[in-house]
Every structure is written in C-alpha cells, then in structure tokens.
Amino acid sequence: MKKVFGFGLIAIFTLAIVMYASDDPVRTFEGEVSDSQCAMNVHSLTRSHQEMLKSRSHGNTPAECAIYCVEYLGGRFVLVSGKNVYRLDNDDLVKKFAADKVKISGILDAKSESLHVISIDRIH
After folding, report:
1. Helices (H) and strands (E) in the chain — how many of each?
2. Cα 63–68–73 angle (5° rounding)?
C-alpha cells in the first residue's frame, strides 16, 4: 500500500511539473528600441536622444545616436515601453531597429528586467 501511495505522489508531482513547464513564457512587448544611455538618463534628462543630437557628436538621427552609444559609450540596446525599460539581449538582431517602434516576442527575466528577443518587427 505504501508503494502505491508513493508512486501516486510521484505521478502527481511529475504531472504538476510537466503542466508548469508547458506554460508558454513568450510574451509580446511594444515600444521603441533605444540605448540604455539615453533611455536611463545617463546623459539625457528627457529619456530621449534630443540632447545628444543637438551636440551633433553622436550622429544626426535617433538611430545613429543609439548605435553610437551602444558601440562607443558602453550602452546596451533597450526597449522603452511606457515607463518600463527592458534590456535587450540580441544586439545583432536589434541594431537594425534602432529608434524604431517595434513589437517584440520574447521571454522576460523579471529579476534583471532583460528581454530575450525571439522575434522583432517594426510597427507601421
């Protein structure tokens, strides 16, 4: 009888683990691809590229500014979505969307506020 009860508990726990693991953690996020320097007010007071573009030292467009900050100032590509800023993990994929409004399918790591990008598309 104890063996049957033990196997029953194991079966219940195994089923619970399988059901939990099958939940799809992929979510959709919308916002603008920026760089962490501008989006987190490292060198911007407005969470935008405007101050850097006025100096003309970081490019002439928001996209050029974001790419410059990532390549030369230690920034990271981020998604600015309302008041949230999510670090993006795939610079090679994200770079061509700098300063664009996008929809991203990805997996959020809530602790680090980073987003593993699975796919990204421009919003027109």
Report:
1. 5, 5
2. 140
